[in-house]
Amino acid sequence: MSTAVITPIRPNVRSGAPAALRPTVVDAAAAAHPSSARPSGRIRLTRRGRVVFTTLAAAPLIAVAAWFGLGGGSAIASSSSSSATFDYVTVEYGDSLWTIAGSIAPEADPRDVIADVMSLNQLETSTVVPGQRIALPERYTAS
Question: What is the pTM of this model?
Answer without folding.
Answer: 0.43
